[in-house]
Amino acid sequence: MAEKERKLTKAEARRVENFAVLSERLQSEGYKVTKCDVSAAKVNIYTLVLFIPFGIVYWLLFRLTGTPLINIEVIDYFDNVAVLIAVAIGIYVVSSAIMIVVHEALHGLTWALFCKNRFQSIQFGIIPRNLMAYCTCLEPLDFKAYLVGAMMPLVVLGFGVFAVSLITGSLYWFLFANFATLGAGGDMSIVLMLLGHRQALLLDHPTEPGFYAFEKTT
Ligand SMILES: [Zn+2]
Residue 207 has what DSSP assignment? Predict the structure, then answer.
């Protein structure tokens, strides 16, 4: 399928070059290459479907803390509904921004541990057309390394923060864990594709979400 032409940023153009060199080298060493990418529309659908079981389990367990999902005391504290909504939006925006930064940092920190060139092989950026932050690795990684790096935000910000919400009974951390799990939907879609390439070397797509799997044909 033909990809839509678009102007690449300087960082993207360098990654395309780096990818071409690595891809050529690996193929000359006898690796067969498979492109594993997923469209943004499909990621959104997978994200919602994958979130449902987590959301149900989170909710069932959080009920055990006895913390109500609607906190009347907090609502009563603000006698003006507009102020309440403004504060809620403010908390949401700031929390989301922090969540995005930590999410991408966790990918980068984890993958850097497995890279020969450590942080020199990690790049962060933003895709303005779909307002998406990303972290990408310039070195091919084996299955376990790629998997651990891809799952780290879900484990820390999703499962870890959810555990904090259970211990503290905090509605804020409960909601944070739910949004963080939703935010890891793209990573979960990628992990599902990854499961079919356990013996492969995995190299991030230079410009789009997804990866290329390099497998020995013999
Ligand atoms: Zn991610």
Answer: S
132: helix, coil or strand? strand
Going from the Cα of 14 to the center of ligand 1, the distance in angstroms, rounded, reads 22
Cα-to-centroid distance, 69 and ligand 1 (Å) = 27
CB 5 within 8 A of CB 194: no
Provide the pLDDT confidence category of residue 218 given band limits of 50, 70 and 90: low
Mean pLDDT of 19-24: 94
The crossing angle, in degrees rounded to 10, of helices 40-63 and 161-168 is 20
| Token representation of residue 20 | 């071409």
| 125 CA to centre of ligand 1 in angstroms | 12
Once rounded to an integer, what is the mean pLDDT over residues 163-170?
A: 96
User: What residues sit around ligand 1, an ion, with C-beta below 5 angstroms?
Assistant: 187
- Work out the percent of the chain whose per-residue pLDDT is above 90: 72
187 CA distance to ligand 1 centroid (A)? 5
Q: How much distance in Å is there from the Cα of 134 to the middle of ligand 1?
A: 7
Whole-number Å distance between alpha carbons of 24 and 31: 9
Three-state DSSP class for 6? coil
Contact 148, 190 (CB under 8 A): no
